[in-house]
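My main concern about presentation is that the manuscript never shows what a single data entry looks like. In essence, backbone conformation is discretised, so a fold becomes a row of integers matching the chain in length. An entry of this sort, consisting of the sequence and the corresponding backbone structure tokens, reads as follows:
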Amino acid sequence: MKGQEWYQADEIAEAYEEKRFSGGGRLIDRREKQAVLDAIGPVEDKRVLEIACGTGRFTVMLAERGADIVGLDISAAMLQQGREKARAAAVESHLDFMRGDAGRLPFPDDHFDAVIAMRFFHLADTPASYLSEMRRVSKEVVFFDTFKRFSTRSIYNWALPMGSRLYSQWEIDRLLGEADLELIRSTHDFIFPYGLYRAIPDSLASPIRTVDRAIGGLPGGKRLSSVSYWHCQV
């Protein structure tokens, strides 16, 4: 998928968080981090792997809460950003960053308490192999997010420079079955696409988010959601 070349460019890594998680994007950042914490539960002293860790948003957050965490990514430029963030937060002793392939994880079976992947599966060329590896090295929790096929995301997906894979419920059910994972909870959110929030100031994003949640709370509203969070158990 063309997204892999886009993702590994130095200039993308340098501007990644500023473009996605400033302004209205802060709201997205808060929601995603809460989703991860809800899935893992108390993180202190837990051994966690984040695949496709990027600039270390979640890796550093979990290290700050006492997790023993490894962040793995294919992009050297993204990992460098993560290391700088870890140094600034003084959590280097709680985490390791590694460059590697998520389809061939260099860890033994059942090595981690939890394995997470955020903002990854929309770029995954072989999602079944990645999910199988996540399941293999986790002894408890597997957590990841996807963009929904039939949602506002599909309206502009074709125009994105990195490409994007969208998933239907049927595809997720099949992937979980093939990986022998039990779905504990799925949460569907963001009627309005991420791109809208990133394009506006935080002061405007908050009232729009209120409308978003109201629509999602209506009967059948969740079917319009563009993002899904999948909390699975081994």
